[in-house]
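Format notes (please read before filing issues)

Several people have asked whether sequences and C-alpha coordinates are stored in separate files. They are not. Every record keeps both together, in the order shown below: the sequence lines, then the C-alpha coordinate lines. Line labels are part of the format and must not be stripped during preprocessing.
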Amino acid sequence: MKKLIIVFALFTLFGCEIENIDFITPIVLTDEPSSVLTNSAVLGGEVVAEGGKDVIEYGVVWSENSSPTINDNKSVEGERLGSFSNLYSNLKSNTKYFYSAYAISEIGVGYGKVYEFTTSSEPSCDPAIDNRIDTGVNQINIDMVKNQDPTGFNDGNIEFEASSGFSTARFFLQFNEINKSLPLTGEYKTVDLFDNQSTRSNGEVKLKITDFGLGSLGGGSAPIGETVYVENKDGKITFIFCGVNVGDVYNLSGKFTYE
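Then the structure lines:
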Protein backbone atom coordinates (compact mmCIF):
# COMPACT_ATOMS: atom_id res chain seq x y z
CA MET A 1 0.00 0.00 0.00
CA LYS A 2 2.88 2.37 0.84
CA LYS A 3 4.51 1.63 -2.54
CA LEU A 4 1.29 2.52 -4.34
CA ILE A 5 1.06 5.84 -2.48
CA ILE A 6 4.70 6.70 -3.37
CA VAL A 7 4.20 5.92 -7.08
CA PHE A 8 1.02 8.02 -7.14
CA ALA A 9 2.85 10.90 -5.46
CA LEU A 10 5.70 10.77 -7.97
CA PHE A 11 3.27 10.71 -10.87
CA THR A 12 1.43 13.71 -9.41
CA LEU A 13 4.71 15.59 -8.86
CA PHE A 14 6.29 15.02 -12.26
CA GLY A 15 3.23 14.43 -14.43
CA CYS A 16 3.25 17.96 -15.86
CA GLU A 17 6.92 17.69 -16.86
CA ILE A 18 6.29 14.42 -18.71
CA GLU A 19 3.46 16.02 -20.65
CA ASN A 20 5.68 18.98 -21.69
CA ILE A 21 8.56 17.07 -23.32
CA ASP A 22 10.15 19.13 -26.13
CA PHE A 23 10.33 17.17 -29.37
CA ILE A 24 12.83 18.19 -32.06
CA THR A 25 13.20 17.76 -35.81
CA PRO A 26 15.00 14.60 -36.96
CA ILE A 27 18.79 14.48 -36.77
CA VAL A 28 20.32 13.66 -40.17
CA LEU A 29 23.83 13.03 -41.52
CA THR A 30 24.77 13.67 -45.18
CA ASP A 31 27.35 11.54 -47.00
CA GLU A 32 30.03 13.30 -49.02
CA PRO A 33 29.19 13.08 -52.76
CA SER A 34 31.18 10.54 -54.76
CA SER A 35 31.51 9.18 -58.31
CA VAL A 36 30.61 12.59 -59.73
CA LEU A 37 30.48 12.44 -63.53
CA THR A 38 28.81 14.44 -66.29
CA ASN A 39 25.17 13.54 -65.59
CA SER A 40 25.31 11.59 -62.33
CA ALA A 41 26.64 11.33 -58.77
CA VAL A 42 26.40 8.96 -55.82
CA LEU A 43 24.63 10.66 -52.89
CA GLY A 44 23.35 9.41 -49.55
CA GLY A 45 22.87 9.90 -45.84
CA GLU A 46 21.46 8.55 -42.61
CA VAL A 47 18.68 9.39 -40.14
CA VAL A 48 20.37 8.86 -36.77
CA ALA A 49 17.56 10.11 -34.47
CA GLU A 50 13.86 10.82 -34.97
CA GLY A 51 13.60 13.56 -32.34
CA GLY A 52 10.71 11.95 -30.51
CA LYS A 53 8.24 11.67 -33.40
CA ASP A 54 8.19 9.12 -36.23
CA VAL A 55 10.05 10.06 -39.40
CA ILE A 56 7.52 9.70 -42.19
CA GLU A 57 9.95 10.37 -45.05
CA TYR A 58 13.67 10.73 -45.68
CA GLY A 59 15.94 11.11 -48.71
CA VAL A 60 18.05 13.74 -50.47
CA VAL A 61 17.43 17.19 -51.91
CA TRP A 62 19.60 19.07 -54.39
CA SER A 63 19.63 22.41 -56.13
CA GLU A 64 21.87 24.90 -57.93
CA ASN A 65 21.14 27.22 -54.99
CA SER A 66 23.33 27.00 -51.89
CA SER A 67 20.49 26.01 -49.51
CA PRO A 68 18.51 23.11 -51.03
CA THR A 69 15.17 22.23 -49.44
CA ILE A 70 12.32 19.77 -49.98
CA ASN A 71 10.82 22.34 -52.37
CA ASP A 72 13.73 21.77 -54.79
CA ASN A 73 14.74 18.51 -56.47
CA LYS A 74 13.95 15.66 -54.07
CA SER A 75 14.28 11.89 -53.99
CA VAL A 76 12.40 9.93 -51.28
CA GLU A 77 14.36 6.91 -49.99
CA GLY A 78 12.50 5.63 -46.93
CA GLU A 79 10.92 6.32 -43.52
CA ARG A 80 11.77 6.01 -39.80
CA LEU A 81 15.50 5.40 -39.11
CA GLY A 82 17.79 4.29 -41.91
CA SER A 83 20.78 4.93 -44.14
CA PHE A 84 21.08 4.89 -47.93
CA SER A 85 23.47 5.60 -50.80
CA ASN A 86 22.31 5.67 -54.41
CA LEU A 87 23.28 6.82 -57.87
CA TYR A 88 21.32 9.87 -59.03
CA SER A 89 21.21 10.65 -62.75
CA ASN A 90 19.68 13.28 -65.05
CA LEU A 91 22.00 15.99 -63.76
CA LYS A 92 23.26 18.76 -66.06
CA SER A 93 26.85 18.76 -67.25
CA ASN A 94 29.45 21.23 -66.00
CA THR A 95 27.10 22.45 -63.23
CA LYS A 96 27.67 23.17 -59.54
CA TYR A 97 25.08 21.51 -57.28
CA PHE A 98 24.37 21.71 -53.56
CA TYR A 99 22.79 18.75 -51.81
CA SER A 100 21.74 17.49 -48.39
CA ALA A 101 20.05 14.51 -46.78
CA TYR A 102 16.72 15.31 -45.10
CA ALA A 103 14.03 13.74 -42.89
CA ILE A 104 10.45 14.81 -42.14
CA SER A 105 8.36 14.27 -39.00
CA GLU A 106 5.27 16.05 -37.70
CA ILE A 107 7.64 18.43 -35.88
CA GLY A 108 9.26 19.59 -39.11
CA VAL A 109 12.14 18.91 -41.51
CA GLY A 110 15.65 18.08 -40.39
CA TYR A 111 18.55 18.58 -42.79
CA GLY A 112 22.09 17.24 -42.75
CA LYS A 113 25.22 19.07 -43.78
CA VAL A 114 25.09 20.69 -47.24
CA TYR A 115 27.78 19.54 -49.68
CA GLU A 116 28.58 20.95 -53.10
CA PHE A 117 29.85 19.15 -56.19
CA THR A 118 30.37 20.05 -59.85
CA THR A 119 29.53 17.70 -62.69
CA SER A 120 32.11 17.22 -65.44
CA SER A 121 32.04 18.71 -68.92
CA GLU A 122 31.08 17.40 -72.34
CA PRO A 123 33.92 16.18 -74.61
CA SER A 124 36.30 18.85 -75.88
CA CYS A 125 36.15 17.31 -79.37
CA ASP A 126 33.55 15.64 -81.59
CA PRO A 127 35.09 12.89 -83.75
CA ALA A 128 33.05 12.52 -86.94
CA ILE A 129 33.75 8.84 -87.64
CA ASP A 130 33.09 6.04 -85.15
CA ASN A 131 35.52 3.15 -84.65
CA ARG A 132 38.51 5.04 -86.01
CA ILE A 133 41.52 6.02 -83.93
CA ASP A 134 44.36 8.26 -85.03
CA THR A 135 47.30 7.23 -82.83
CA GLY A 136 49.56 10.06 -83.95
CA VAL A 137 51.61 7.40 -85.72
CA ASN A 138 48.98 5.77 -87.91
CA GLN A 139 45.22 5.48 -88.28
CA ILE A 140 43.44 2.33 -87.10
CA ASN A 141 39.91 1.25 -88.01
CA ILE A 142 38.48 -0.64 -85.03
CA ASP A 143 36.39 -3.67 -85.97
CA MET A 144 36.08 -5.43 -82.58
CA VAL A 145 35.39 -4.11 -79.06
CA LYS A 146 34.81 -6.66 -76.31
CA ASN A 147 33.99 -6.53 -72.61
CA GLN A 148 36.05 -8.89 -70.45
CA ASP A 149 37.48 -9.49 -66.97
CA PRO A 150 40.92 -7.96 -66.36
CA THR A 151 43.69 -10.40 -65.50
CA GLY A 152 46.32 -8.29 -63.72
CA PHE A 153 46.70 -6.98 -60.16
CA ASN A 154 44.82 -3.73 -59.43
CA ASP A 155 43.28 -3.75 -62.90
CA GLY A 156 39.75 -3.09 -61.64
CA ASN A 157 36.88 -5.42 -62.47
CA ILE A 158 35.79 -4.53 -65.99
CA GLU A 159 37.91 -4.14 -69.12
CA PHE A 160 37.26 -3.17 -72.72
CA GLU A 161 39.62 -4.34 -75.46
CA ALA A 162 39.50 -2.75 -78.92
CA SER A 163 41.36 -4.06 -81.92
CA SER A 164 41.52 -4.24 -85.71
CA GLY A 165 41.99 -7.25 -87.94
CA PHE A 166 44.49 -5.18 -89.94
CA SER A 167 46.68 -4.11 -87.00
CA THR A 168 48.57 -5.79 -84.19
CA ALA A 169 47.76 -2.90 -81.83
CA ARG A 170 45.34 -3.52 -78.95
CA PHE A 171 43.68 -0.82 -76.83
CA PHE A 172 42.72 -1.62 -73.22
CA LEU A 173 40.52 0.48 -70.91
CA GLN A 174 40.06 -0.79 -67.36
CA PHE A 175 37.51 0.42 -64.81
CA ASN A 176 36.65 -0.50 -61.22
CA GLU A 177 32.85 -0.29 -60.99
CA ILE A 178 30.31 -1.48 -58.42
CA ASN A 179 29.07 -4.96 -59.38
CA LYS A 180 31.07 -4.73 -62.63
CA SER A 181 28.51 -2.26 -63.96
CA LEU A 182 29.21 -0.45 -67.21
CA PRO A 183 30.93 2.93 -66.83
CA LEU A 184 28.62 5.93 -66.88
CA THR A 185 28.66 9.04 -69.03
CA GLY A 186 31.42 11.40 -67.99
CA GLU A 187 35.08 12.35 -67.95
CA TYR A 188 37.42 9.66 -66.63
CA LYS A 189 40.95 10.55 -65.58
CA THR A 190 43.75 8.06 -66.23
CA VAL A 191 45.49 6.50 -63.21
CA ASP A 192 48.22 3.93 -62.69
CA LEU A 193 46.48 2.40 -59.62
CA PHE A 194 42.88 2.45 -58.43
CA ASP A 195 42.57 3.97 -54.95
CA ASN A 196 40.27 1.31 -53.52
CA GLN A 197 39.39 -1.98 -55.20
CA SER A 198 36.11 -2.25 -53.25
CA THR A 199 34.53 0.99 -54.46
CA ARG A 200 33.44 2.62 -57.69
CA SER A 201 36.32 3.98 -59.78
CA ASN A 202 35.08 7.50 -59.09
CA GLY A 203 35.88 8.72 -62.58
CA GLU A 204 39.14 6.79 -62.99
CA VAL A 205 40.39 4.63 -65.87
CA LYS A 206 43.56 2.76 -66.75
CA LEU A 207 44.48 3.02 -70.43
CA LYS A 208 47.19 1.10 -72.25
CA ILE A 209 48.20 -0.03 -75.73
CA THR A 210 50.02 -3.23 -76.62
CA ASP A 211 51.57 -3.79 -80.05
CA PHE A 212 53.89 -6.70 -80.66
CA GLY A 213 53.86 -6.65 -84.46
CA LEU A 214 56.92 -6.46 -86.69
CA GLY A 215 58.30 -2.92 -86.64
CA SER A 216 55.74 -1.79 -84.03
CA LEU A 217 56.40 0.85 -81.39
CA GLY A 218 55.61 -1.56 -78.57
CA GLY A 219 52.67 0.16 -76.90
CA GLY A 220 52.61 1.96 -73.56
CA SER A 221 50.38 3.27 -70.75
CA ALA A 222 48.69 6.64 -70.35
CA PRO A 223 50.28 8.90 -67.72
CA ILE A 224 48.25 10.05 -64.75
CA GLY A 225 45.72 12.78 -65.50
CA GLU A 226 44.83 12.25 -69.16
CA THR A 227 41.10 12.53 -69.98
CA VAL A 228 39.01 9.80 -71.62
CA TYR A 229 35.36 10.63 -72.19
CA VAL A 230 32.74 7.89 -71.81
CA GLU A 231 29.25 8.16 -73.28
CA ASN A 232 26.76 5.57 -72.02
CA LYS A 233 23.47 5.49 -73.92
CA ASP A 234 21.39 2.62 -72.53
CA GLY A 235 24.39 0.29 -72.44
CA LYS A 236 25.91 1.41 -75.73
CA ILE A 237 29.32 2.67 -74.61
CA THR A 238 31.39 5.07 -76.73
CA PHE A 239 34.94 5.95 -75.71
CA ILE A 240 36.11 9.34 -77.00
CA PHE A 241 39.74 10.48 -77.18
CA CYS A 242 40.67 14.13 -77.71
CA GLY A 243 44.45 14.07 -77.89
CA VAL A 244 45.18 11.49 -75.17
CA ASN A 245 48.85 10.73 -74.60
CA VAL A 246 49.83 7.07 -74.21
CA GLY A 247 53.44 6.03 -73.71
CA ASP A 248 56.14 8.09 -75.38
CA VAL A 249 54.82 8.23 -78.94
CA TYR A 250 51.03 7.81 -79.06
CA ASN A 251 48.53 10.64 -79.04
CA LEU A 252 45.00 9.28 -79.47
CA SER A 253 42.19 11.08 -81.27
CA GLY A 254 38.90 9.51 -82.33
CA LYS A 255 36.36 7.15 -80.81
CA PHE A 256 35.14 3.57 -80.74
CA THR A 257 31.93 1.94 -79.46
CA TYR A 258 30.98 -1.17 -77.49
CA GLU A 259 27.41 -2.46 -77.83
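For reference, the curators noted about this record: The longest strand covers residues 236-246. The helical segments are 2-19.
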